Sequence to fold (469 residues):
Amino acid sequence: MSRILVLGGGVVGLSVAMMLARQGHSVTVFEHDRKPLPRSPEEAWRAWERRGVTQFRQPHYLHPPVRQLLESHLPDVKEALLRAGCVTFDRLVTMPPFVTDRTPREGDERFVAITGRRPAVEYAFASVAERSIPVRRGASVAGLLKGPSVARGIPHVTGVRTLHGEEVSGDLIVDAMGRHSKLPNWLEAVGARSPIEEAEISGFMYYTRYFRSTAGVVPAYRTALTTVFHSFSLLTLPGDAGTWSVTVFISSDDHALWKLRDPKFWTALVGACPLHAHWLDGEPITDVLPMGGILDRYRRFVVDGVPVATGIVSVGDSWACTNPALGRGITMGLMHALGTVEVLQQNLDNPFALALAQDSMTETRVTPWYRNTVDIDRTRIARFNASIDGRPEPQPADLPARIADALLVGMMYDADLFRVSAEISSLLALPQEIMVRPGVVNRIMEVAGTREAVIPPGPSREELLHMLV
Ligand SMILES: Cc1cc2nc3c(=O)[nH]c(=O)nc-3n(C[C@H](O)[C@H](O)[C@H](O)COP(=O)(O)OP(=O)(O)OC[C@H]3O[C@@H](n4cnc5c(N)ncnc54)[C@H](O)[C@@H]3O)c2cc1C
Fold:
């Protein structure tokens, strides 16, 4: 049994902590925010102060790999999510009307996701975790403790110091402090080399409003979860307890559209989109919640084949965070959490091997999803920005990008291509894994070659600007 300190009590930190505790380790979670777990999911939504998670009241969707992981490793958390009012959601209900073949296929259950407002989601994870693990809320960590090195020239982390000066030692430290984690600075303070870091502002602004149904019924889908228009996208997500969210997202350079912060303009835009207007038919339970300035950021803690430190690993948003246009953060974080637990299980007695194995697992299993997400974001923002400037849409730069574009057309008409596209957007398979399947690329090009791209009904750019005056 090892003593493991998990820094950060968000969804990813709590999941790592629960999985490790169930393997028999002694785990303590340190959480910066002081407020205790509320008594109910509704109280969590209304009153839980979670300053450490700035996106706490923004929409959250858990892709199918989260459901699968919970069913196999944390079934009581899945039950707690459903008890908290979260709902399962079958991605196949968003199949476009142009797809005439509606026959179910073997394995269709893989598309089932879970969705709920973030406070309800976090309430469920925390209520299960706190039954068996000490979660020290208000114990903010301020730095690392160093012990004798296990490999020459590489600092070995042996514990943490809290903001109040308490020193706590552990056999392994797990950093799950989210997108604001200061781990690189703390590592530098114990003499470590800097990790590799890549960061860019994603360039999106989000305007979200939540609604509640008076009859408990969430609006039905008439189109995809996310619909991409010329210079904005619309995202509709069912939540827990008869709630749902509607998000308009735009380029943060699109100053003319910043007025969407005003509920009057926001409502006018959503109401002008025929496949989305019915999502306004509920009681608004928030104002329009704006969010912007969100970074895509990736870190790597092995440089030139050598770990920057031993005794500590980084997981979830602290390792890499993406902007939420594709809602992938928690799913990537939990894939990473599971991989981390497997790495720790096999390497706890060898800190140097552990650091290398963590890097290798991360690069193989999760980094490709980070890269894929950033690529999709860049393509979308380039298209938004071209539309704002009145330039033609940028053309796909290479063959994989051309195939990706063709898939967007093909999935609107073909049942199998819809599933291919849903596998990618649901993080079930990477494009590079799918494109080597026999016949897939030919089928995409064949369908796309004979069909028109579907332009979603809604205001043109000109009409939109006119609406905002
Ligand atoms: C607007 C928006 C919408 C999003 N929508 C989705 C979505 O639909 N689906 C999805 O999967 N993801 C979504 N995400 C991403 C998702 O929120 C993150 O990926 C997820 O929260 C990462 O979990 P985490 O546990 O790694 O970090 P966090 O949830 O950020 O948790 C980190 C925790 O560490 C604590 N902490 C920080 N510093 C310290 C310290 N010094 N000592 C102790 N504790 C500390 C914080 O208080 C916090 O509780 C969205 C993100 C944004 C910004």
Observations:
- The chain has 15 helices and 22 strands.
- The chain has three domains: 1-198+295-391, 204-292, 395-462.
- The chain has a mean pLDDT of 96.
- The two ends are 65 Å apart (CA to CA).
